[in-house]
Amino acid sequence: MHLAFLGWGTAVPDGTLLQEEALELARSLCPQSEEQLNWLPKWYSQTGIKTRGIILGRPVLDDILQKKNETGSPFIPNGKPDDLGPTTAQRMEHFQTLGPPLALLASKQALENAHIPSENFSHLITVTCTGFFSPGFDYHLIQNLSLSPSVARTQVGFMGCHGSLNGLRVAHAFVKAQPDAKVLLSSLELCSTHFHYGWDPQKIIANALFADGAASVVLGASDNIAKETWKLASSGSCILPDSANAMTWNIGDHGFEMTLAKQVPGLIKQHLKPWLEQWLAKSGLRLDDIKSWALHPGGPRILTAIEDALSLPAEASEISREILSKHGNMSSATLLFILKKMAEIEVPRPCVALGFGPGLAAEAALFI
After folding, report:
1. 304 burial class (0-12, 13-18, 19+ CB within 10 angstroms)?
2. Domains in the chain and their CATH numbers?
3. What per-residue confidence (pLDDT) applies to 34?
C-alpha cells in the first residue's frame, strides 16, 4: 500500500528579508575585525538566496540594523565583544511564542486543500529540529484545528533537514497498519532562532543559508485515489561512510550550533550514487527511470554535488534552486515546499526526493 498526499499547505513569516538585509544583519552581529567584515559579502553572495522569511519581525530587525533598542528583544546585541546573543532558554521561548501560529497556518491550508473534516484525523506527526517545549506545537494544532483529543501524536525531532522524509516514513507505516488512517504531518522550522552571534566560519555559513517556514500535508491510504495524486511508494536511509563529524547539530548555551565541514560535497559525490542505485533496484528501477528530482537545497554546493554524483542535468534542480532563492533553507520544511510546487505543476514521475542531515545521513523517498 502506498501513502497518498491528499492536501498541501505552506506558510512563511509575514514580510520578507532581502539578502542584502540579511547581509547587513550579519554585519551587525558577527564580525570582530575589518577582515572578517570584508569576508561576509562573498559568502552571502554565493548562497543563491534572494529573499527569505524570518520570524523576528520587522521592529526587532530594524532595532538591530539601526543599532537601537525600542523593542527590548533579547536578540538586540549588547555591544560587548563577547556577545553571543540570547540564551538557549530565551530562544526556546521565542520559538514557543511565534512558531505554533505558523504551523497552524500551514495546517489549515492543508486541511482545506484536502476537504477532510478535522475530526476524521487519527494521527498527527510533528517535525522540527529548531525548537522544543512540552506540551508542544502538536497540542496547539489539536486545540486550534479541533482535532480529536485522542488523535495519536508522534514527534520527529532533531533529525535535521531530512526530517520530513522521516516523518513521511512514519506516516506510511501508520497507514499500512491502519488503512483507514488519516494523518496530518506538520513541519515547523524557525532556523533564525539560532542565529549565531560572533565569529565562527561554519556557523556564519549557516546564518547565510537558513530561514523560517512551516509546511503541512494530509496523508492517507492510496486505495481508490485518483491516478494523478502523488503517492509515496518507498523510502530509504543511509549513513555515509566516515562522515560522523561532517555535519553536526548540537545544543549550546546560546542556541543550537551547527557545523558543516567542507568535505560534505565530496562525501556526497563519492557515496551517494552506489547507495541510491542499490535502493532503487529494490523497486525495480534504475537512475535513468527517474523523471524528476526533489533535492533538498542545503546550499548551492550541495545541489551541485548531487548533480555531479548522479550525472543530472542542471534542470533537475531547477525547482529546488527556485525554492532556495525565494525562501532560503527552511530545514525540514523545505522539501515539502519543493514537493508541493512539483505537484502543482505536475512534473513527471517517478520522482525521488533526497535530503541530508547530521551523520552525514542521506534520506530518500520514491514518489509515483
Report:
1. middle
2. 231-367 (3.40.47.10)
3. 84
